[in-house]
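Q: How do we represent a protein-ligand complex in a form that can be generated token by token?
A: Start from the inputs.
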Amino acid sequence: MHPQGEFELIARIRRQAPTGPNTVLGIGDDCAVLRAPAGADWLATTDMLMEGRHFRLDQCRLSDVGYKALAVNLSDIAAMAGLPAAALVAVALPRDRAFELAQGLFDGMRPLAERFQVALVGGDTNAWDGPLVINVTLLGLTTELGPVRRSGARPDDVILVTGPLGGSALGRHLHPEPRIPEALSLHRAGGLRAMIDLSDGLTSDLDHILEESGGLGAVLDAAAIPVHPDAIELSRRDGRPALEHALNDGEDFELCCAFEPCAAERLLAEPPAGVWLARVGSVTRGPGLLLRDERGGLTPLEPGGFDHLAGEPG
Ligand code: ADP
Ligand code: MG
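Then emit the structure tokens for the protein with adenosine-5'-diphosphate bound:
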């Protein structure tokens, strides 16, 4: 793109960019200036989506890509029980359609940014002969309760998830609902010791919590895993058990939490308003993941399930 084109594109984005209460200075200077309220800490996260690897433009809408690029970052802020604040968006645009692509991405991103009060405070705009790449960096703020890390789980903690799992590849993966309010409600409820968002799949992501919490293990109850209808549909198509999809498919973007046992009982008896919860298992002192069947039999689970997906788009 001609430098003049780049300036025009940035000017156009600047006119449409949402601002927010933490923005001292938004788009237009060499840096944005942001201010955190007293006592809050910044959360910072970034995620890149690449055409051909994470999406194909002949299989999804441009606005879906824009939506998802922000949504996956919001999901990371949710996983720390933070509040989203400001985003920076870097794009590599295929030269021949640069304007159209930039606007399409923005149109998908803006409603989500407005809904979660994310200010668009900067970015970088490039055009080239390669595929479309979009990278969103999202800054968030901790609440007065502080962040929830992966590392706080303890033996006997109860493992909860915020939604049915599996089969997101049928299309759901393009439209994840960031669990920001759910995470804040769960944190306020008390007893939340560790949390992660489910991007790689329940077994893989739970394993991250267990590893970071000092090498713990977990038992998952087969009958308690909430299997998404998409997992059942995918199972019909590929012949693999729906439970396997629910355990190992990625991109559910639900939260997986470890709760202190009494707090978990309270929550399951009376979930916070608008929060869907399922108890999927519990943390054990001994390392390793086990699946308990209906008769009480235990089978070891490999994080990530079978390796046949290794090296494929994730
Ligand atoms: P510099 O050359 O100093 O990095 P740029 O010309 O790249 O500045 O950007 C000018 C301003 O526009 C900066 O505030 C930058 O953050 C913002 N900006 C550039 N591209 C984007 C984009 N895609 N989305 C939002 N803001 C952008
Ligand atoms: Mg630049």
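Residues 168 and 252 are 6 Å apart (CA to CA). The pocket of magnesium ion (ligand 2) is lined by residues 124 (CB under 6 Å).
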